[in-house]
Design brief:
The complex is a heterodimer of chains A (163) and B (288).
Chain A lengths: L10 H14 L4 H4 L5 H12 L6 H15 L5 H16 L8 H25 L11 H16 L12
Chain B lengths: L1 H19 L4 H31 L3 H39 L6 E12 L7 E4 L12 E4 L2 E10 L2 E6 L6 E6 L5 E6 L5 E5 L12 E4 L11 E9 L8 E6 L8 E7 L20 E3 L5
Antiparallel strand pairs in B: 1-2, 1-12, 1-13, 2-5, 3-4, 3-12, 4-5, 6-7, 6-9, 7-8, 8-11, 9-10, 10-11
The chains are: A mainly alpha (163), B alpha+beta (288).
Chain lengths: 163, 288
């Protein structure tokens, strides 16, 4: 599995910026529970397609910014997003990159551990979210992944047929 | 792997430090200032849409609005005059009684910039910060009802916690019976829960609760919530009382921040908060 080449300088940063904006975009309250974890999806995409260019430190820093915006304990999302990228990078050699189901499985594992640890930290700091609505984001993330993964190709050159 | 371990330990350390103390406040403030432009940019289309829809409002409607507002100003001016005389009278009477002076308050208006993207918190970001004299745990009002309090500040923005946030609680008093209760946020829009209401207490749907002023943070007698639902499960020691907040948090765009002369955390320090010249000052007269 080769690295894809990025289409232009800063494409990765741009994609992460877009994901960040999608994360903080104001939406009606009913929908906000269904907001996919855009940053985690983006990090996983880059982790799968350009592992050498993905940086744990960058993921960590983005998580820190997310902590500040969402008013959670500093380091909570930082650890979570880094964990998503880390699991992706470690599992990458073990899966078939083009198989959708294996991708979804990997997404489920990494996102699940991210959100579970998040939930523990929320519980320890005393604001456990009520009910099961906390997990809706996993469903929406899994649903949106195929499309998002496909359209993320605008950020890098397409694979040549003989590769 | 080693990088992961280092960052994981670092995150753990940050979380513990941030949860246990306030040492990381400068870091948080710095990062917040870093993302502020982004937050502003994200909110910009909404502000523009608001602005343009206002700009293209039909002239007729505008002039009608204008007429109504003008007459309202007249009414308020008259009322203000009355308050002035009452205030003067109050000061005179208090001087005779040698009692402490009534609460004097200053206001400033701020705009809500963005709503928390975290669905489990009820906080908003406003466009005023320490440069305007905003301080942590400052009281925030909207349309003469209590809106919440300031959670954290940066030089040009601040985070305001709404009454409905799960971390927020305020002591309130029933206007009908005078009995107290604790209004705790539920994390749902415009929903408050009144805690510690004993089963023997007289409470019914439609009761209006105002702030009691206990705890010295919130000024007394500001409307907070109206009881919407009272239930009692036999066996529980308290009733389950749900209330609707007087402020409609989903519609409010502008809020008032107040400075009280008898309460401010900056009071024991050398300076009082400097208030911008646009700030209007008013006073609450009457008995406390």
């Amino acid at each position: 599995m080769n690295e894809v080449s990025i289409r232009f300088t800063g494409a990765m940063m741009l994609s992460l910026l877009v994901a960040f904006v999608l994360t903080i975009l104001p939406v009606p309250e009913k929908w906000s529970l269904w907001r996919p974890e855009w940053l985690a999806l983006t990090l996983m995409h880059w982790g799968l397609l350009a592992p050498k260019k993905s940086s744990l430190l960058l993921a960590w820093f983005l998580g820190l910014l997310l902590d500040v915006i969402q008013g959670t304990v500093l380091g909570q999302h930082a650890f979570g997003l880094m964990l998503v990228l880390f699991i992706t990078l470690r599992m990458r050699p073990r899966i078939l990159k083009d198989s959708l189901f294996q991708q979804l499985f990997l997404l489920f594992i990494s996102l699940g551990s991210y959100l579970l640890i998040n939930l523990w930290i929320l519980g320890i700091t005393g604001n456990t979210p009520p009910g099961w609505s906390y997990w809706l984001t996993v469903i929406s993330s899994l649903l949106v992944w195929p499309l998002y993964h496909y359209y993320m190709h605008i950020y890098h050159a397409r694979k040549k047929p003989f590769e | 792997m080693i990088k992961f371990a280092i960052l994981a330990v670092l995150s753990g350390a940050l979380m513990v430090l941030d949860y246990r103390g306030t040492k990381l406040q400068p870091v948080r403030t710095a990062l917040k200032m870093l993302v502020y432009p982004l937050q502003y940019a994200v909110d910009l289309p909404y502000r523009l849409a608001h602005f343009t829809s206002e700009f293209f409002t039909v002239h007729e409607a505008l002039s009608k609005d204008n007429r109504e507002l003008r007459s309202l100003v007249g009414v308020y001016a008259a009322r203000d005059q009355k308050y002035h005389s009452i205030e003067q009278e109050n000061i005179r009477l208090r001087r005779q009684l040698k009692a402490a002076s009534a609460v004097r308050e200053k206001f400033t208006l701020a705009e809500i910039l963005s709503v928390s993207s975290n669905p489990f918190r009820k906080t908003v970001v406003i466009n005023k910060g320490t440069n305007d004299g905003i301080f942590v745990s400052q009281v925030v009002l909207a349309d003469n009802n209590i809106y919440g309090q300031v959670e954290s500040v940066t030089p040009n923005s601040a985070v305001v916690m709404q009454l409905t946030d799960v971390k927020h609680a305020i002591h309130v008093r029933n206007t009908r019976t005078g009995l107290g209760a604790l209004a705790v946020g539920t994390g749902k829009a415009n929903q408050l829960e009144l805690k510690h209401v004993e089963t023997s207490m007289d409470i019914q749907t439609g009761d209006v609760f105002v702030s009691s002023g206990l705890g010295q943070l919130f000024p007394p007698d500001f409307p907070v919530a109206k009881v919407s639902h009272v239930a009692y499960n036999p066996g529980d020691s308290f009733m389950k009382v749900m209330a609707r907040s007087m402020t409609d948090f989903t519609k409010t765009r502008e809020i008032l921040l107040i400075w009280r002369e008898d309460y401010s955390p900056l009071k024991d320090k050398k300076t009082k908060p400097t208030v911008a010249s646009t700030t209007s000052s008013a006073s609450i007269a009457g008995d406390r």
